[in-house]
């Protein structure tokens, strides 16, 4: 299911919502979660899971083609931990 | 940030009542959960993909007792963040 299919489904399930409004809602949800993560904030959705930002230290790696050693700088990566309810539902199916 | 903060954003920016906003946020996550439950993936452009993966049986060890156990096959949910999200976390 893509974002646009999610927008369709939301509009379908809530009859009083136009497709445009449905799109605004879905975009707002993911944009605000992204904004929180960009601020380094944790996002916790009960029954779904939580998103945190993890720091990856700088490291040296090798270009597999040339064998050359390259420096990879420290960076931040988003991390998702599935919530208990969803973890159990996904496995039960 | 929790669901309540997202509800507040919708209330502020779209002007829906807090009750309606809360119902819509709940509905969006219900649709996502129901879809993942069937094994289908969720692809949110600019945010990331949620994919259910099959994990085979594997051998593990109880770290407390040292006892060997079999970790049974299971389905797990993985999140692969989009390049856009990853890049935006490191932009300054």
From TrEMBL, chain B:
<dbReference type="GO" id="GO:0005829">
    <property type="term" value="C:cytosol"/>
</dbReference>
<dbReference type="GO" id="GO:0006355">
    <property type="term" value="P:regulation of DNA-templated transcription"/>
</dbReference>
<keyword id="KW-0233">DNA recombination</keyword>
<dbReference type="InterPro" id="IPR005684">
    <property type="entry name" value="IHF_alpha"/>
</dbReference>
<dbReference type="GO" id="GO:0006310">
    <property type="term" value="P:DNA recombination"/>
</dbReference>
<keyword id="KW-0804">Transcription</keyword>
<dbReference type="GO" id="GO:0030527">
    <property type="term" value="F:structural constituent of chromatin"/>
</dbReference>
<dbReference type="GO" id="GO:0006417">
    <property type="term" value="P:regulation of translation"/>
</dbReference>
<dbReference type="InterPro" id="IPR020816">
    <property type="entry name" value="Histone-like_DNA-bd_CS"/>
</dbReference>
<dbReference type="GO" id="GO:0003677">
    <property type="term" value="F:DNA binding"/>
</dbReference>
<dbReference type="Pfam" id="PF00216">
    <property type="entry name" value="Bac_DNA_binding"/>
</dbReference>
<dbReference type="GO" id="GO:0009893">
    <property type="term" value="P:positive regulation of metabolic process"/>
</dbReference>
<keyword id="KW-0238">DNA-binding</keyword>
<keyword id="KW-0805">Transcription regulation</keyword>
<comment type="similarity">
    <text>Belongs to the bacterial histone-like protein family.</text>
</comment>
<keyword id="KW-0810">Translation regulation</keyword>
<dbReference type="InterPro" id="IPR000119">
    <property type="entry name" value="Hist_DNA-bd"/>
</dbReference>
<protein>
    <recommendedName>
        <fullName>Integration host factor subunit alpha</fullName>
    </recommendedName>
</protein>
<dbReference type="InterPro" id="IPR010992">
    <property type="entry name" value="IHF-like_DNA-bd_dom_sf"/>
</dbReference>
